[in-house]
Amino acid sequence: MKNKKRISLIILILLLIGLGIWWSVQKEVEEEKGIINDVSRLNPTHITAIIKNQEVQGIQQAVEEARKNNLKVSIAGKRHSMGGHAFYKEALVLDMTAFNKTINVDPKRKIVTVQSGATWGDVIEAINPHTLAIGVMQAYNSFTVGGSLSVNVHESDPHFGPVVETVESFRLLLVNGTIVNVSRTENPELFSLVIGGYGLFGVILDVDLRLTENAIYKKQEQIIDYKEYYRVFKNLKEDENIRVIFARLSIARDETLLKEVIVTTYENTQQTDQQQLELAHAQSGKLKKWLFGLSRSYDWGKKLRWYLQKKYSDKFEPEIISRNNLMNNDIGFLDYYSATDTDVLQEYFVPVEQLAAFTDKLREIVEKNNLNLLSATIRYIPKNDETVLSYATKESYGVVLYFNIGMSEEEQEDVQRWTREITAEALAHNGTYYLPYKLYASQEQIRKAYPHLDQFFEKKQQYDPQELFMNKFYATYAKQE
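RESULT FIELD:
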């Protein structure tokens, strides 16, 4: 019996690997036919061409040729935004992933200068020998720096807000081909428009980022009720040595659903063990991928994942870890392909005191619609209104949700319906939602969530009257195509 189970497990793993390889081949075939898509696979779009350049001059020439030939230009990195933010029909797509050099590391000033196509993994590798670390990035290392600025990412260190806080300056290629320096003091209006501006004002070329220390952390966990999170977090945040706080909500389809919370903290140990500070290879995550697959397909799989997270998280995550190794995570365990369904992210921001009330409404919607919720986490976002399209105009918690959804037209209409329900609840609780994901929100909802949206679009017209830089996000909400 044990041998049969082992053989079944091996077959399942091989099948998943085979599907991953097949999907990679399919992507290449589609792109050869002029079809581009993002990680959601919900936005297949015919484009004119994909251009990769390693030099500034080549990027300038591509933009100039597009302008002369009346083509639209879209700017792409790893294409993890899920609403067509990185492309547009018949556009020329600038794939920035080859423009990926780390130009300089200044240990004294704690500044790294990096090209926008570099991934966070590239940056971590460059700065780790200097005992420096990233202040703000996503939870995984494979996203590009330029893409992260374009969506103004955030993460789990309570001492930082969105990534804009760590940006000293950047160079921007404008619609007319000129390159300008942008910072809080030089072209400050562009600073507030481009960060969190989804590539609509020009091409981010290289960026000066402020760094922090690569310290050694110790992990601790506790399990609490969701109604206690605000109080527990407030106490944890007051401890200067606690550098990372994040929380997982239960996805088990039982009495714990969105009620039990695993609170994970990483505290600075003040240790200087050089072996711990060395950059480790990111783990393959095969076991995590398999468990995630079970939770995608079965309710008992969700219960199993939640049980293992509560009882055996130390088997998946080390107790002692450097900041860089904590951040240098591989997102590959989330790779998934099916012809009929896909996984999507959504995130909603609510004022810290509204978390429990919003979670109650979220649970109602998940249960009422029998939603296939694969992950629910909580991130803290302090107030920051440096960007025009800021989601952090008040101190908030971000509730990050990962769903498996159907891809048919009928199923997508249903997803739009319940997504608008969740969005309406976030707005009713004086919150908002994150813009990089599938464009399900109504015109009314996005303008209520982002009251400066039309001002943002007016500035787009001033800086780019030809609308050279274009994507589906702008076309949907500004032009209402």
